[in-house]
Structure formats: C-alpha cells, structure tokens
Structure to design on (222 residues):
C-alpha cells in the first residue's frame, strides 16, 4: 500500500488550484464557451460526445445559424439537419437533435430543464451532457464524468480502477468534490483542456504536467 503526503481530498483541492492556474494560459477558445444560452450549450455538448472539439466548431456555428432556437430545430427537415451534422460521424446522429427538440417542447414547454433527472429524460442526453449543461447553463455545482475526466481522477488519485471507470462510484464521488466550487463552468473547461493537452489517454505529457511538477500526481509518482 503506497503512502502519500496528501489525502485524496487534499489532492483534489491542490489539483483544482494547479490546473486552474495552468488553464489561464492554455484555455481553448470555442464559441459555445462564450454563451449562457441553455439551448446553444445543450446543442454543443450533444455534438461534443465522442467528437473532438475542433471538429465541432464549424458545425456548431452553422447549426445555430440555421436553427437558432428549439422550435426551429423541432420543425426542421431531417435531411437538412443531417447535411449539417454528418461530418461529426455516428450514424443517424441528426435524428437525436430533432427528437431532443421535440421532447423538450412537448414535455418541458420548450425550456431546457435544469435538473439531472429531467435532462436525462431527453433523447441523446447522458450523464456527461447533463452535468455540463447544469454547470455551464445554470451555474450548478454538479459532477461531470466522461472518459477523459475519469482517466484523470484514476491517475492522479492512483485508484487503479478497471473497465468502464466513468461509471464507478469513486469517480462520481471525486468528480463531485472537484465541481463543488464557484465558477464550476470554468473548472469544467479547465479539466477538459488539461485532458486534451497534457493528460492524454496515450503518451501523457507527464514531463510538462503542472500537477506532476508539485508531486501530487500519484500516477506520475508511481
């Protein structure tokens, strides 16, 4: 059993501080990060599932130009939506956007809900999208988990979890601790940018990692 200078929650607090400082000089700029429009944020996060942000940017801009609100999307022609989003990959993804818009109109009076349970009822919305929408659109301090965030916690905390770790209770618990902060939206973008630039799934850049520099990453220590 390895012994560490800091306990898990102290490590999370230090990690938050260090990557937030790093992020101020390494933030990626995307149009959906500048808006508070809950519909735009929902659309962007649905597009970002299993797709790199750089691939999404132009598609997102075109999408919200053609469908500026939930009602225009619900009334859209499927082939037109498909023409816009097909470059994102995943078969029949266009149907998810139309179905989600129709569901929100019929069940939530056209308003994006602000609770996880209600968001999870929307077609195409899972734990990751619901968490991002709550933090980014509604300023709620809610956990966000995807494969990238799960990988980071598994590494820095030396959890040694196997399989589909994003669903593990430990990952959800530690993600909840990370996001329990003011400006949780910025902390969401910070950890995602850190995952993309430094803590990659293959060949992580431990040598230039701002967390490793202070010796709190248990993955790097081991």
């Amino acid at each position: 059993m390895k012994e560490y200078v800091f306990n898990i929650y102290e490590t999370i607090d230090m990690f938050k501080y260090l990557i937030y400082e790093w992020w101020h000089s390494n933030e990626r700029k995307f149009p959906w990060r500048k808006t508070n429009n809950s519909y735009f944020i929902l659309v962007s996060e649905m597009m970002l599932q299993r797709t790199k942000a750089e691939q999404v940017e132009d598609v997102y801009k075109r999408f919200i130009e053609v469908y500026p609100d939930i009602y225009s999307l619900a009334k859209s022609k499927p082939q037109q939506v498909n023409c816009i989003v097909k470059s994102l990959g995943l078969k029949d993804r266009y149907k998810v956007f139309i179905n989600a818009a129709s569901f929100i109109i019929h069940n939530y009076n056209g308003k994006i809900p602000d609770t996880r349970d209600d968001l999870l009822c929307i077609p195409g919305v899972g734990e990751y999208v619901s968490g991002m929408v709550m933090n980014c659109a509604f300023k709620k301090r809610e956990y966000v988990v995807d494969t990238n965030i799960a990988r980071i916690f598994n590494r820095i905390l030396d959890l040694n979890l196997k399989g589909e770790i994003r669903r593990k209770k430990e990952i959800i618990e530690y993600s909840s601790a990370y996001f329990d902060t003011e400006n949780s939206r910025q902390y969401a973008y910070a950890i995602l940018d850190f995952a993309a630039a430094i803590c990659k799934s293959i060949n992580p850049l431990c040598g230039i990692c701002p967390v490793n520099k202070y010796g709190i990453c248990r993955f790097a220590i081991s």
In short: Residues 9 and 124 are 33 Å apart (CA to CA). The two ends are 12 Å apart (CA to CA).
